[in-house]
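Here is one chain, start to finish.
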Amino acid sequence: MRFLAIDFETASSNANSACQLAAVEVIDGAVAGQHCWLIRPPRMYFSPRNIEIHGIRPQDVRSAPTMEEVWVELQSVVDGQILVAHNAGFDMGVLVASLAAYDIACPQLEFTCTRTLARAAWPGRQRYGLKPLGDWLGIAFKHHDALEDARACAEIAMAAAAAAQAADLGDLGAKLRVSRGRVHNGTICNPRRFGRSRAGRTGDASATVDSWGVPTRQSQRNPGAWNTAAVLAAAGTSRPLTGKRIWLLGPLSGLTMEASQDLIRELGGECVTGVDEHPHFVVTSGSAGPTANEQLRSGASDHASGESRAESSPPATAIRILSERQFRALLPAGKSVPWNS
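Its structure:
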């Protein structure tokens, strides 16, 4: 796995006011190089709010290089790399604007966002900021120091890759269904999660998933009652759910919760009841999207509050959230078995 994690701090709300930049090189899944610069912004105005956040003051950067001077060195570091940042749209915006302030055209770049990757790798958490994720993953760092933040960002990316069992960023994006962002001719196209309509991100009633990726009520057409005998006959001796931990948010259609769990076990699966048991699949059976959302949030919250942060560990694999129809499609003859008993 190879990439370059970056982080900016700014002097004010202006995107071209970069006052600190760090870049952390990762090669073969390990930190191979670190770079950090204090930067003198075009205007020496530092807002009190920004100073309060990162502690950098005008006197700290009076003799620092401008972004134009830093770029001479940074360009060779960035060249050929996939960039990674947390809330990457912000950092890419600062990079483009800071270069434009000196009439420097930003090269074409590809990047990904660890916030977006984390939402896909560990759904149901209440907070995806750099500090909450770092604490949860056991990453010790000083927040709002660019170098410390870039290192934390790199570690989150590597943790997500380990959770998804991905070999590199391309494999990670494919497994988590997250597209890569791009900077082209100064225009920024941010990473997106596949299969999530724009309506799903804005809460439109016609959406198929909500902002957490949970299938909504509109997408959960009644799939019909399960015919357990037909399902088991189609599976034969294959036990297709062997090695999979499954969290049912409600009983399968036409079955009691106990019968639903018995069926999962007969198919080789293990029934779990929360995020802390690291499910492979969360099946939203018997639960409309909003209810599923609440259960996922509650499960993640209970897990976080029930263990000390030092003892808490992330799931060993990425969680997939499925509607009941999607879950059926995983089984042999899942789309053609006569379900109604």
